[in-house]
Amino acid sequence: MYWYSIKSMISRELLIAVRYPAEVLNPLVFFLMVVTLFPLGISPEPQFLAQIAGPVIWIAALLAMMLSLDSLFKNDFDDGSLEQLLISPSPIVMLVLVKVITHWFTTVFPIILLAPLLAMMMQLPDEGYRALILTLLLGTPVISMIGGIGAALTVGLHRGGVLLSLIVLPLFIPILVFSASAIEAANMIMQYDGQLAMLAAMLVLALVTTPFATAFALKISINN
Amino acid sequence: MPEVLLRAENLLFEYDDLLLFEQLNFSAQQGEVVYVEGPNGSGKTTLLKILCGLIEPTEGQIYWRDQRISSAHIDYRQNLLYQGHQAGIKSSLSARENLKWLLSLKGLRPGLDKIDEALALSGLMGFEDVPCGHLSAGQKRRVGLARIFISNEKIWILDEPFTAIDKKGVATLESTINQHAEQGGLVFITTHQSLNLTVPSQCITLD
């Protein structure tokens, strides 16, 4: 019976994303701009670009995600659908997870699709592409899920965006470090399984723990 | 003897050192309409949210069929319809899609004809496919209220349901509320209008 409420939640979120494409396009355009400005601002030297390509793309993706995280629960909070969700008999933890995953799919997945193109522009060595895509695929969902806790905690605050960044940004550093080091290792034709395994472990941990924290944080936010 | 559905014991609510109410006791039975009255800012909405389980009272307990609402959780929520100030309506979705989602939260999956019927009863015939952002304030409220024409919940908690609704709409809602109480339901309502009800009612006054 509750599979239906989960399914219905997915189709609702996707429908809203289709009707309001600005929410999807904003982070994507931001990502594109930041990466494009780097060669113009620092140096168009191919060898230099190849060195910073991986980290620049990762940092730009991370910042683009931070932009969109703020709105994860905001609209639902403002129009009252969050209240309806929280008093529903459906499994709230699952619905919250569904919301975070569809948000990832609509805002971050396009960024990952665009990443190889920008990597080519940034002269990323051929060996680095696989590592770049794999780290993005493993790392960005963790960022969405951890960011979801922060977004849930700050949803009731006006201008909670700054606080949100302060809360969650430090937690993203390990993901960035492992991803950058995986891409660097790949560029030097070295093994990077270890870094990928760490990212995968973080993903699994985030998947089983963060939905509970997010649902709880939402309850606290709505209590005030 | 009608069954007592909801009972509150010694409710006390304090917010930022401001005491909204204390020593609030009541029990509400099947077939009853309960008015929550009081001036603006007296805590009517807060009380309704406490009854929903959205807000924890500072002290006191609420029982649903002699079980605390926090432990009766799923059974209670299945029987609860709450309409707050914000109706939970997405402006980018149509009336039909909004209503469908609100019902799906309860696991309900009515057919399209049932949904259109509820929307028609709510006075939205011809607006089923219009994005709710293009509807008027009263029409948006009607989308949320359309749930009561399709619901199987025992308890309705309606916070100012008549805001921005025209006279004819109020009359329809009144008769639906009457009907629900006659069929053994329970309605909590805050309103500044006087209603024509044929069913027993009680009044909780907050000051």
Residue share in β-strands of chain A: under 5%
Instruction: Give the ordered list of helices and strands of chain A.
Output: HHHHHHHHH
Distance between the termini of chain A: 32 Å
| Structural class designation of chain B | alpha/beta
The percent range for helix content of chain A is over 70%
Number of domains of chain B: 2
Q: How many structural domains are formed by the residues of chain A?
A: 1
CATH superfamily (homologous) name of the largest domain in chain B: P-loop containing nucleotide triphosphate hydrolases
Shape of chain A: elongated
Main attributes of the structure:
heterodimer; A: mainly alpha; 9 helices; B: 207 residues; alpha/beta; Rossmann fold; 2 domains; 4-stranded antiparallel β-sheet; 6 helices; 9 strands; 28% strand; globular
Q: What would you say this structure looks like, in words?
A:
The complex is a heterodimer of chains A (224) and B (207). Chain A is mainly alpha-helical and 224 residues long. Chain A has one domain. Chain A has 9 helices and no strands. Chain A has helices at 2-19, 21-41, 46-69, 74-79, 81-86, 92-121, 128-153, 161-187, 193-223. Chain B has 207 residues and is of the alpha/beta class. Chain B folds into 2 domains: 1-79 and 153-207, Rossmann fold (3-Layer(aba) Sandwich); 91-151. In chain B, 31% of the residues lie in helices and 28% in strands. Chain B has a 5-stranded parallel sheet with strand order 6-7-8-3-9, sandwiched between helices. In chain B, strands 2-1-4-5 form a 4-stranded antiparallel sheet. Chain B starts with a strand and ends with a strand. The mean pLDDT of chain B is 89. The interface between A and B is medium-sized, with 26 and 33 residues.
Brief rundown of the structure:
The complex is a heterodimer of chains A (224) and B (207). Helices cover 84% and strands 0% of the residues of chain A. Chain A is mainly alpha-helical and 224 residues long.
